[in-house]
Amino acid sequence: MNKKIILVTSASGVGFPSFGRYLKGLGKEFRIIGTSSEKDGSGFTSIDKGYFVSQPDDKNYVSDLLAVCKKEKVKILIPCDPRELIAIASNKEKFEKIGALTLLSSLKSIQITDDKEKFFIFCKEKGVPVPNFIKIKSYNDFRRAVLKLGYPQKAVCFKPKISSGTRGFRVLSSKYNRLRNLLKDHPGTVVADFSEVCSILKTAKIFPEILVMEFLPGKEYSVDILASNGKAQIIIPRTRDKILLGASFLGQAVKEKEIIKCSEKIVEIFNLDTIVGIQFRKDERGIPRAIEVNPRIQGAALLSVAAGADLVGLAIKNALEQSWKNPKIKWGTKLVRYFDEIYQDENGKFFKI
Q1: In the Cβ-directed half-sphere of 32, how many Cα atoms lie within 13 Å?
Q2: Domain 110-115+217-336 sits in CATH 3.40.50.300
Q3: Tens digits of residue pLDDT in 282-331
Q4: pLDDT grade, residue 38 (50/70/90)?
Q5: Phi then psi for 145, rounded to 5 degrees?
Q6: Strands, DSSP E only, in the chain?
Q7: Do the Cβ atoms of 82 and 110 come closer than 8 Å?
Q8: How many whole angstroms separate alpha carbon 89 and alpha carbon 93?
Q9: Do the domains spanning 110-115+217-336 and 132-214 agree at the CATH topology level?
Q10: How far from 307 is each of 118, 259, 274, CA to CA, in Å?
Q11: pTM above 0.85?
């Protein structure tokens, strides 16, 4: 039997080992290969074969990926790194020409949702709640915007106009204690000192495009979605109860009707396709507000699989034009993520103890 080849990128991510094992369990008709820009290749231990490629922002990245797809006769390509999405979507026809179907939304959809300002504006126009925000272009704009949104009485946050995850995200709070942060807080905290941030931004020769936003104090949610040409087929909200390194380490699949309704609307507004992630956070009144779209599979999406919604398997069936039945969701299913290790001998061979 000729096996269908699935290629998954970013095989060195935090949650990849479990994702690789999941893919291996999809069935004997599939062979799983991966790519990574990290030279240790530890993620390759959970799949059939791995290839090292250049960084996603390198000019040779798409060529490297195409070469692997051509050599392995890849049938399904699953992009996982936010940095590669635009490059792959821009070259979708090249991948399809050699037989590789990409589980990815259109280039237009990715470009719009990648731009936080455009995303917020489109959502507001269509009645989807988003945080109050102000786009700023200078140091003085930044100071005025922070004060206008209520600082120091209220916490305020900011993020680059184009970014993903927690990259560049900071919360400004008058309760921030610089000495405590120095001596007791874990490195990588997102809470920052207003005066310190101002002193850094003041040095910028070319001021970055930043969105200053109200801080939403409520619970945070990620939503895993299977979509087909702007229509949501399955929507699974899950809580983000513990976050480390930007990834969910504790969460639960929950049937939040308002979040499901807003997610369905966002998929339609932006004509999203295949596997999609959307993030929400509740305000002080408990109203969920959309804060970000991830037009790819999210890091903790296996929680949705555990809850009964095999989004990746069903996305593959959609791509191969195969039929499937609506799954029964086990609401309340929890995710508990933990660290694990793998070891490497002097010859580069991996082993576990």
Answers
A1: 23
A2: no
A3: 999 999 999 999 999 998 999 999 999 999 999 999 999 999 999 999 99
A4: confident
A5: -65, -45
A6: 4-8, 30-36, 49-52, 74-78, 101-102, 133-136, 156-160, 170-172, 191-192, 210-214, 220-228, 231-239, 242-244, 247-252, 274-282, 288-294, 334-336, 343-344, 350-351
A7: no
A8: 8
A9: no
A10: 33, 17, 19
A11: yes
DSSP string, 74-141: EEEEE---GGGHHHHHHTHHHHHHTT-EE----HHHHHHHHBHHHHHHHHHHTT-----EEEE-SHHH
The architecture (CATH level 2) of 4-102 comes to 3-Layer(aba) Sandwich (3.40)
Calpha distance 345→341 (Å, rounded)? 14
Task: Output the CATH code of domain 132-214.
Answer: 3.30.1490.20
Question: Where exactly are the structural domains of the chain?
Answer: 4-102, 110-115+217-336, 132-214
The residue assigned the tokens 């109860």 is: 241
CB 166 within 8 A of CB 240: no
Supply the Cα-derived Rg of the chain in whole angstroms. 21
Q: What is the mean pLDDT of residues 53-80?
A: 96
Q: Tell me how crowded residue 285 is: count the other CB atoms within 10 A of its CB.
A: 6
Residue with tokens 């009964």: 308
Q: Residue 185 pLDDT > 80, yes or no?
A: no
Going by their DSSP bridges, the two strands 101-102 and 74-78 should be labelled as parallel
Tell me the C-alpha distance between 181 and 196, whole Å. 13
Nearest CA among 78, 96, 87 for reference residue 9: 78
